[in-house]
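Hello forum,

I keep getting stuck at the same step: I have a sequence, I want structure tokens, and every attempt I make locally crashes halfway through. Rather than fight my setup again tonight, could one of you with a working pipeline run this one for me? It's a single chain of 240 residues.
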Amino acid sequence: MSDHCFADRIATLIPLSAEEHAAIARLEDRERPVRRNGMVMRENERLTEMFVLRRGLMMSYMILDDGSRQILRFHFPGDLMGLTGLAFAKSQETIMALTESVVCPFERGHVSELVAKHPRIGMALMAFDQISRVGLTDRLAAVGRTSAKARVAALLLELRARSSTRDGSFALGVTQEEIGDATGLTAVHVNRMLRQLEEENLIARDNGRITVVNDQRLMRTAKYVDRQARIDLGWMPPAA
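Reply #2:
Ran it on my machine without issues. Output:
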């Protein structure tokens, strides 16, 4: 792995030439620290920059008409944030740091230059966006059609998959209120569901860490679909 986490992330989807990798890596030329609860983008503000998350954990959310918050995504290192800036003049979401974080800001016009010079990168960005969209669609379907326990279980599996852990244990990194705002539940209901998953010996909790005790049963409870295993970018042309 290099110091350019977004370029490395794209390279997990498609083989990159050295020139393509260097071109994507230039999006991370600048660093900006963001304190916990700091915002890099606010809903309805004019968009001038996009961001790569280099370190930390962040989230995107919207404020609904009743004042409640709907969390759309949790962002991990290597994520490209603010992609709505390619279609809208104003931000459609707020992006806030959940931990001390580091982002790499770049002008959204750089994407145009990048894609013009390297069309395969444009294809990869389109695929990257669709992978993110499908994850959001899964959450929407879960909120509308599955039980509270299934929603919480599915989010735990999503967070584990994004945490790049090599075993069943991972730092949760989010509060029960944030889990609730992502799944359409109250913090009290989330707490009850976590206890139930623990009592059923599906997970174990210890000092902010979650251990998946029974992977297959938890996936069945969550009605979880491993979308990463289904990614197929074989249609893309090879690197020059």
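Helices lie at 5-13, 18-25, 109-117, 119-145, 148-162, 176-183, 187-199, 215-222. If your local run keeps crashing, start a new thread with the error log.
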